[in-house]
Amino acid sequence: MRSLTGEAILRAGGLSLGDVDLMVACPPCQGFSLLGRRDPEDERNDLFQEAVRFALDIGPTVLVVENVPGILSFEDGTAVEELRDSLETEGYETDLWDLNAADYGVAQSRRRIFIVAADGVPLPDPPAALRRPSPTVWDAIADLPQATRRTRPPTTSEFQYRSNPKSAYARALRGRRAGVANCEVTHHSPEMVRRFAALGPGEIDKPTHHRRLRPDKPASTITAGTRSRTACRPIHPYRDRVLTVREGARLAGFPDWYRFPATISAAWEEIGNCVPPPLAEQVFVQLKETATSGRKPLWTVDAPRPVPASRYVQPGPPNWTERRLRIVVRRLSQQYGDPRHHNKDDPLDELIFIILSGKTSEESYLRTFDALKSRFPTWVDLLSSLPGEVERLISPGGLGRKKGNQIRRLLQAVSEGQGKADLGYLRSMNTNEVEDFLVSLPGVGLKSAKCVTMYSLGRRSFPVDTHVRRVLTRLGMVAISRLDDRAQDHLESVVPPDLRYKLHVNAITLGRVLCLPAKPRCQECPVSELCEFSRVRAQQETADSIQASEASMSSFSSSPVTGLAPLTRANSETARRSSVLVVNSPVSQRSRKLSRSTFVSHL
Ligand code: SF4
After folding, report:
1. Which of 217-226, 344-353, 572-581 has the highest mean pLDDT?
2. Which of 62, 124, 52 is nearest to 86 (CA)?
3. I need a labelling partner for 184 at 20 to 30 A (CA). Which of 229, 291, 313, 441 fits?
């Protein structure tokens, strides 16, 4: 499960992102169950996060994650909180349903937790509880046969019912059947029978944890059994034995036609882990109605986008929604892991690092920055260095004189203004004040200022460099014709604050690795499915390939090499649709040796 991806699931089902209306996930509950060991190290506990991962990859309109009540108290409810946080961050609204099967017509008190998430549709309400008393144990099982004869395997032989059904509940589960399977009783030792016989309704046999059921109440929760603390099979309300599989199944609301696994222990495991079918059905009906009721297409927005504040930035098509951007950011984060690109914690270091990084390779500016830092323990030392020394150190990165002057002027301005070459005090200023101050320094533009606020001060800024610009434009999110300060501010305003850092650092990596200026490698790109450039390019390639096919077909039909008469219109249509006829393809080469009729059927 951990290695499977939502994309692989979609591909296997022939589906695309946004095609799925309803997704149901039932991650393992054993680690959370109050009856289990509740081991925080149980690695099954993390599997609910995989359910979230699948949901975010698949993009269902409605998602429901089912589990046991113990998940609410496990580690103070952290698991549920994390689950809801992750979904809400991705634009889902969430709700938590705590439902008891006994309120939905099941002869068992059995709570189940459903975390429901909806995107693009209103959150559904939980199914309404039934306004009638819950069926009792005896309502559920009175008519069932009990087979003392052993059969092999025990789950397939059918036995006649003992009597007519004693309740509407039993009648509904029985249907029109004449017989039912899974009715073999367990043969206990005389000692066990003696102990069971001593138990009144609701009492427990302490050594084995078996509880005798009350006939006039719904059953208490049937568990899959932990041996040390609980027994999965309760004791029959009137007989001195545990329930048969079918009696347990009736208490969980399984219809009599349902066949359990061949072994009795596996059958009880299924009963002990189930969401009772009548409850599951009502939850499903409720969710299905919401999930399929006028779903908005995945990329649709309600309101028109705001007019851009910069004339150099034009918004993309209306289907470029925040949801789509979040999927892009998540995929890029998965691929590249939000790298820091060696940027510096100290604001002044960061400014000098940015100056050195201009118009040179990463390897080169990393080297020149290290060279400066090891030569000058403090930036004040640089100000008192010999003329030309700084330039010599940084010249391997190119533009040595220009960058050297820039650094000197910057350090002088900082030192004169503050009395020291240090910008640590910026941490106590708000982001706008910091940006205003930084752009007042010589040679510092708004993009550099935003890099300082983002990388060094941890603010939610969004600097746009040439890579980010190229990636956003190709994705189709915005069209950026010029990167002036207003464009920087505007782009920051259209990216939700929690996405800014991730989008910035990962778009830079994408721009350096795959979304190259001249030849983007779209086939390897994790966001190609969401990219306008890639979509248009694929369309163009398809059109070109069809055109090539047609050109090839027409040259083939008139070619003296083939010696064939021109193809009929019908055959020509077949060829157009097949698009396998390409010049020099194995088919066309081989076909030269075939008769015309063989060739046409080959197409
Ligand atoms: S699909 Fe191609 S053009 Fe689009 S972002 Fe990826 S590499 Fe760039």
Report:
1. 344-353
2. 52
3. 229
The per-residue pLDDT for 261 is 84
Band the pLDDT of 250: cuts 50, 70, 90. very high
Kindly report, residue by residue over 460-473, the tens digit of the pLDDT.
999 999 999 999 99
Span from the CA of 234 to the centroid of ligand 1 (angstroms): 60
- Give the Å distance between the CA of 328 and the centre of ligand 1: 11
Best of 472, 522, 529, 537 to mutate for ligand 1, by most ligand atoms within 8 A of CB? 522
The Cα 377–Cα 372 span in angstroms is 9
Examine the pLDDT at 574 and tell me if it is beyond 60: no
Band of the pLDDT at 353, cuts 50, 70, 90?
A: very high
How many angstroms separate the Cα of 35 from the Cα of each of 30, 176, 201, 229, 593?
8, 38, 22, 7, 75
Task: Report the pLDDT value the prediction gives residue 225, as an integer from 0 to 100.
Answer: 60
Residue in 527, 410, 508, 494 with CA at minimum distance from that of residue 455: 508
Mutate to test the pocket of ligand 1, among 325, 515, 523, 537 (most ligand atoms within 8 A of CB): 515
Residue nearest to atom 8 of ligand 1 (CA): 515
Q: Which residues are near ligand 1 (CB < 6 Å)?
A: 471, 474-475, 514-515, 520-522, 525, 527-528, 531, 533-534
Average pLDDT over residues 49-54: 80
Mean pLDDT across the stretch 8-13? 85
CATH architecture of 322-530: Orthogonal Bundle (1.10)
**For tokens 């568990």, what's the residue?**
223
Query: Does residue 38 register a pLDDT over 70?
Result: no
Start-to-end CA span in the chain (Å): 41
Residues of the chain with pLDDT > 70, as a percent, come to: 83
Beta strands at 159-160 and 111-118: parallel, antiparallel or unpaired? unpaired
Model confidence pLDDT, tens digit, residues 194-228: 999 999 999 999 888 889 999 999 999 988 765 55
Residues near 287 by beta carbon (within 8 Å), at least 6 away in sequence:
22, 24, 62, 64, 116, 124
Look up 531 and say whether it is catalytic: no
Name the residue ranges covered by the structural domains of the chain: 6-132+281-291, 322-530, 533-602
The contacts of residue 485 (CB under 8 Å, 6+ apart) are: 439, 445, 446
Q: Which residue has the higher pLDDT, 153 or 13?
A: 13
CATH T-level assignment (fold) for domain 6-132+281-291: Rossmann fold (3.40.50)
Q: Write out the H or E segment, with its range, that includes residue 23.
A: strand 22-25
Closest of 500, 511, 501, 514 to residue 468, by C-alpha: 511
Cβ-count burial 25-53 (b if 16+ within 10 Å, e if not)? bbbbbbbbbebbebeeeeeebeebebbbb
- CA torsion, points 576, 580, 582, 585, in degrees to nearest 10? -160
Average pLDDT, the chain: 81
Rounded Cα distance, 598 and 591, in Å: 8
- Tell me how far apart the alpha carbons of residues 538 and 410 are, in angstroms, rounded to a whole number: 48
510 C-alpha to center of ligand 1: Å?
Answer: 8
Name 498's Cβ contacts closer than 8 Å, sequence gap at least 6: 89, 460
